[in-house]
Design brief:
The complex is a heterodimer of chains A (117) and B (231).
Chain A lengths: L2 H19 L3 H23 L18 H4 L3 H32 L13
Chain B lengths: L1 H23 L8 H14 L4 H9 L1 H21 L16 H23 L8 H18 L7 H24 L26 H27 L1
The chains are: A mainly alpha (117), B mainly alpha (231).
Chain lengths: 117, 231
Amino acid sequence: MTIITILGFILVLIGLWGMLTQKNIIKIIIGFSIVDTGVHLIMVSIGNLKDRTAPILDKAVDKTEALTRVVDPIPSALVLTAIVIGLAVTALMLSYAIKLYENKGTLDISEFKELKW
Amino acid sequence: MVKKFFVLIILVFFAVMLLPFAQDVTPFKELSQTATKYVKDGPDELGGANLVTSVIVTYRGLDTLGEVTVLFIATAGVGFFLRREDKRKEKKKRESSQILQSGSAFLFPLILMFGVYIFLHGHLSPGGGFQGGVVLASALVLLLLSRSATKINDTVLHLVESLSGASYIAIGVLGLVLVVGVGFLDTTILDLGEFGRLLSAGAIPLIYSFIGLKVGAELVGIIDNMRKDQS
């Protein structure tokens, strides 16, 4: 395992801690974003190969030597997808937060007791 | 206090659960089998210099279609939640300073051009439709922030979004209809052209342009909805 993988896992744990302990809804959303970033880091680090360059062919990386020079393009593509989805989900959560604030006048999660049992 | 203790326990369990996975992740020495195929055959099959783009637009084109759909659903959700009443009180806002206005007027066309550049060159250089769309949206966000009187025409926004989305699907269907042997979302329906030129790689630049326009329009829609809601 590499240092980037470990950092990714640490970020996931930090984000999880934020989601579990914070009372402010905006802070919970920030915690979610941190988990998101951590997962992206892990995925990128899995696809990374040592001493290799980005999977883009140009003058520096010829078509013939691409197999030994570039990193795995699939995790990069997956992370690109995941970033866009994460953005959309964050926007949706923030609009939930706006609506909740309009209804209750507060962003404290412990004030919302309707679904508690 | 008890709650904090539980949170700690949950985190420790989670860390213990992740630990074997973290240890098992051994960096590969070679490309995996799928990646080998993509890297070896990709440039000749599809003509794109950026292999990530080849994977996203063609090899995993269906996933990208799903991704665009998720983005659309999220935008629709934001629009639904932040739907505002029509008779909102126009608060008189202070005009922004001259420096901000001139600066944003100077930067706006440049950022717009940069966004178009990014998604047109998606098959040659780092970047692509999603990134270019975000840059496009950032230009409009700059305008919205620096001039509070700016109004975005919803009809044009929806028209751009739905037309580019429909064109994306249409190009995908063309792959089924036009040539025998190629499938849905195949980008080889157009001529591959010379490797490394702007007009090459078949339909990849076309598809990425549509994705860029769609993503840009959707993100501007999200920001516009959030802004209108608080005025």
